[in-house]
């Protein structure tokens, strides 16, 4: 993904984007697969946007159990919550699931206009509000998913959301990671997926690929009619 295509630079010309890179002390960073971008105890200092690759966000609780997980891909940003709430340390970690290329932006860029009072600076701050609104919408949808009834309904809601109308759903999550995402255990998730397959609702094609055979039945499950 090209830098100018990021939501952060929406509405800016190529020249304005270049000037913004200088004003914000932005830099492009590459992380090898299986490398930490930051750990849960690190101090927030920069905002990150994914130019290529896949990033896993996760959280480990006091008992050492992973209780939060999310995958992010090209064009998405992360690190904004702890950064702008001025937390002393991150509440979660960021991990490169593949080789990742990131644009990172200094926190100081967002705390006022630069000395040159550049017009593009104000535009970027406005774009950040758009990004926050998008994240809030995504989190609301996740809350709806996780409170939409029993596990079978949550799985149905997840598959319908991820499919975007296409029969083939390829999730970046492994089975145990998907179980954490849906707030359940791996055996319980496997039982429900097996039930859906036995009833002709889905077909599992490998560990991370699911083919939807009946959108109608998934919708019925979600609405509590199955």
Topology, element by element:
Elements: H1 14-23, E1 27-31, E2 36-38, E3 46-52, E4 55-60, E5 66-72, E6 77-78, H2 80-84, E7 93-96, E8 100-106, H3 119-146, H4 151-163, E9 168-170, H5 175-181, H6 186-198, E10 202-204, E11 209-212, H7 215-222
Antiparallel strand pairs: 1-8, 2-7, 3-6, 3-8, 4-5, 4-7, 9-11, 10-11
Helix pairs in contact: 4-7, 5-6
Short description:
It contains seven helices and eleven strands.
Description:
- InterPro entries: cNMP-bd_dom, Env_Response_Regulators, HTH_CRP.
- It holds the Pfam family HTH_Crp_2.
- Residues 149-216 form the HTH crp-type domain.
- The protein folds into two domains: 3-144, Jelly Rolls; 148-222, Arc Repressor Mutant, subunit A (Orthogonal Bundle).
- Helix content is 37%, strand content 23%.
- The mean pLDDT is 85.
- The protein is α+β, with helices and mostly antiparallel strands.
Count of individual domains = 2
Question: Which structural category fits the helices and strands?
Answer: alpha+beta
Global outline: elongated
Main beta-sheet strand count, sense and barrel state = 4 strands, antiparallel
- Low-confidence runs: none
How many whole angstroms does the radius of gyration measure? 20 Å
Strand order of the largest sheet: 1-8-3-6
Q: Output the CATH topology of the largest domain.
A: Jelly Rolls
Known CATH architecture of the largest domain: Sandwich
Proportion in helices? 25-40%
Tell me the name of the CATH class of the largest domain: Mainly Beta
């Amino acid at each position: 993904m090209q830098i100018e295509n990021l939501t952060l630079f929406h509405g800016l010309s190529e020249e304005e984007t270049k000037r913004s890179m200088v004003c914000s002390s932005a830099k492009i960073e590459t992380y090898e697969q299986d490398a930490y971008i930051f750990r849960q105890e690190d101090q927030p200092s920069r905002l990150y946007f994914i130019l290529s690759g896949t990033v896993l966000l996760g959280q480990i609780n006091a008992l050492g159990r992973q209780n939060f997980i999310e995958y992010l891909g090209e064009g998405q940003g992360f690190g904004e919550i702890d950064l702008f709430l001025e937390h002393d340390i991150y509440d979660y970690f960021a991990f490169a699931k593949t080789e990742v290329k990131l644009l990172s932006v200094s926190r100081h860029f967002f705390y006022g206009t630069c000395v040159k009072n550049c017009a593009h600076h104000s535009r970027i701050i406005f774009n950040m509000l758009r990004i926050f609104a998008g994240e809030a919408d995504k989190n609301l949808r996740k809350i709806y998913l996780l409170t939409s009834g029993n596990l079978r309904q949550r799985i149905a809601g997840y598959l319908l959301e991820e499919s975007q109308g296409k029969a083939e759903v390829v999730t970046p999550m492994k089975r145990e990671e998907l179980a954490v995402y849906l707030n359940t255990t791996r055996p319980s998730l496997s039982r429900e997926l097996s039930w859906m397959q036995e009833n002709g609702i889905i077909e599992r094609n490998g560990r991370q690929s699911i083919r939807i055979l009946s959108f109608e039945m998934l919708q019925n499950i979600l609405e509590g009619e199955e």
